[in-house]
Design goal:
two-stranded antiparallel ribbon; single chain; 343 residues; 4 domains; three-stranded antiparallel β-sheet; mainly alpha
Length: 343
Amino acid sequence: MIVPYEDICRMAEDVAASGMFGERDPNKVRTIMLLAQAEGLHPAAGLTTYHIMHGRPAMKAEAMLARFLKSGGKVKWLENSGKRCAAIFSHENGGEVEVEWTIEKARRARLTTTMWSRFPEAMLKARVCSDGPRYVNPVACGIYTPEEIADFDDKPQPSPPQPPPEKPAKEVSSGEPAVDSPGARMDQAMAKAKDKPDLPGWAADIASHCADAGIPWQSDDGNSLQEVILRVTGMEVNGILQLGPEEGQRVLDHLKGARQAKDADAEKVEQDRQADLKELRKMMNERNLKAVDVVMAVSKRYKTKVTALGHLKGEQLVYATSFVMEHAPQDDGFDEAFPEPKD
């Protein structure tokens, strides 16, 4: 049954508005639906089969594997780990082939996207799932996967917009420095979210939480709100309000859980530090060492000023313990006054 083009357009608008499949551009959704219908599928089935990435249609790796198996193909998995993925693919039309992808192979191919560093096991499996079916049955699986397109060096680039005329930086009335990057502007907006009552509750809570916890919108180390949203929802967004209420609540729950776990870890670390300090003071008493002696030794070793024994932590605390242990415990003269009887 052929779905009329007008109906596909309406479906694309509804799907994009819902954000259920992580795609909010109705033009891309419509393209996916048309591609699915051209291959004999219902347009809605294309949403679980295809992506549009960098202007190219891409079949999801699991969908490619499912299509290969449905066409009569067979697969035998040999290994699936974060360092190596290997499998044997066979089909009556193309024989049998063993496909292997390793982290070393990916590095030689210069596949260095962030997805490879975060999810090596999934990326290796996706490569195997795309190579194997294409080797032995290319008719059924002759399209790229999203993981392959993400690693292309020749991604189509949009024409760069003409830069606007340069304007002198304006001073912010609050005395804050002017910002000139999207990430900095988002950080400033999140810091002021609690002063905007028109924001949805979940969005204001996310912004307020990140402002209090010092979580930036973007960062080079991956510890940013944008990265959290990608991990939790699979959506690449340029602002909090591009999330729906359901995705926003999931992100907020994740942030709260991470904060609680971090606080619990910090509490455990502090408890361990206090226990180590208690043991350190006990050893100092046994050796008649004063706190000032230990503090001066640590200050000299690390060329920094330590003002109190209770401020020691981490490597400094370890060094202080080793410094104290180098001194033999002082006896109280009891053994000399009352020696052990000789046989």
